[in-house]
Amino acid sequence: MKPDPWHDYYARRAREEGYPARSVYKLEEIQKRFGVLKRGGRVLDLGSCPGSWLLFASRVVGDRGLVVGVDITPLTLRLPSNVRFVQHDALAWDEPFLEAVGTNFQTVLSDMAPSTTGSKFVDAQRSLQLSESALAISASVLRPQGAFVCKIFHGSDFKGFSDRVRRSFGRVVHFKPKSSRKASKEIYIVGLGRT
Ligand SMILES: C[S@@+](CC[C@H](N)C(=O)[O-])C[C@H]1O[C@@H](n2cnc3c(N)ncnc32)[C@H](O)[C@@H]1O
After folding, report:
1. Using CB atoms within 10 A as the burial measure, which of 14, 39, 40, 181 is most buried?
2. Among 45, 5, 2, 15, which Cα is nearest to 27's?
3. CATH at 56
4. 110 touches ligand 1 (CB under 6 Å)
5. CA of 45, closest atom in ligand 1
6. pTM for the full model?
7. Which residue has the least CA distance to atom 7 on ligand 1?
8. CA–CA dist 189, 152 (Å, integer)
9. Total domain count for the chain?
């Protein structure tokens, strides 16, 4: 197989810097551009395994902040003291789940991604469902002026979803990090200033 310079560079850097996945550099770019994570802030991270975003967010919010991770799969990472993990299917969210994660978050992140099937249409539909869940959860737990970052695979209802985010946030930006593979259909919707 042909070597992938993108994969090699970011995977090597992640290993050297102690992150379990190279996806951390996408959040780093989002943070540099939009400052969605605040020192002392409360962050909900949906789709948090294997845990790179948890570690990155934990370092930014510091000891007085809190990061709550949620994933359908178990987390094996040793967690810093300001991080909690809830194993749960975000598509099946309900009141007990919301109670378990807490409320009054300044930032809701979703890097959730479905297992890919090979069908772009099916994958985009599943990604959309995850994004809709993330948006619905953020409506319950995000405080006014809070920020929402959501990965979605570009598909037929991308614009519809983006418009729905726009109804709840003062500013909405579509962002493709440099560290995201060009061939990947993923894009991040960043909502700032929850109304
Ligand atoms: C690309 S990974 C996230 C990587 C993570 N941001 C990091 O930096 O380590 C996507 C995650 O979404 C999770 N996921 C997919 N469907 C989910 C669901 N229904 N509920 C919760 N998590 C889900 C997967 O288990 C996977 O761990």
Report:
1. 14
2. 45
3. 3.40.50.150
4. no
5. 6
6. 0.96
7. 52
8. 7
9. 1
